[in-house]
Amino acid sequence: MALNKKRKAELQKRWKNAKPPERFRKLPMGTYQASIVELKFDESKANKFLAKWTFQITSPSSHKGTKCSKINDLLYESAKKGQSSGLDYFKGDLETIGLSIPDLDDKGLKKLCKSIKGTMVELYIRDNQKNPQYQDVFINGSINAEEPDEDEEEIEEETDEEEEVDEDEEEVEEDEEVEEDDEEEDDEDEEEEEEPPKKKKPAPKKSKKTSKKSPKKEEAEVDEDDFDDEDDEEWED
Length: 237
Description:
The chain is of the alpha+beta class. It has a domain at 26-142: CATH 2.40.50. The protein contains 6 helices and 5 strands, in the order αβββααββααα.
């Protein structure tokens, strides 16, 4: 079938911006981590009231981004006595991830659909036994509600202990610094106590003049008259 120029140009322009829809594909049987993309309620042509879950795989990385779905038929009633109904299964799934609603009415369902988006869950996926082209999806629990591993707890405890040791060391260092400051202050006080206050020097006393001569000087002084008499006697002889 030939396309006219106008239609061809239009299709080529739209082709560049066209995005293929995200398709659901089968996953190998096993356990996965996923985020709840959507929960909505719908009535089918067969007069069934369905809760439709949409999940997006986050782990393992080899299947990251793949979507899978789960459907609860809320009006389903088992013909066998003692078996769970559709509502039982749906309520069990909510409790498994830590959610509940007081009443199954429009207000409660609307609030639930809004609050459940983004919740991280663990899924178990397997092929349906009767129809292998379909897969059964079971919710094991909420990832956020899981208890931490023992290794993680030990790491947290070691971190807390290290923080406590660091705090103790800081307190010891602060105490040592305070003690050193106290010792320096004590040394300064001791130095101040050892240095006596400077006294004013007393003014020098003026020596009193005495009229008495020293005895040595008196002995040294010789009377000149004695020498004169001796010389005269020698000459006279």
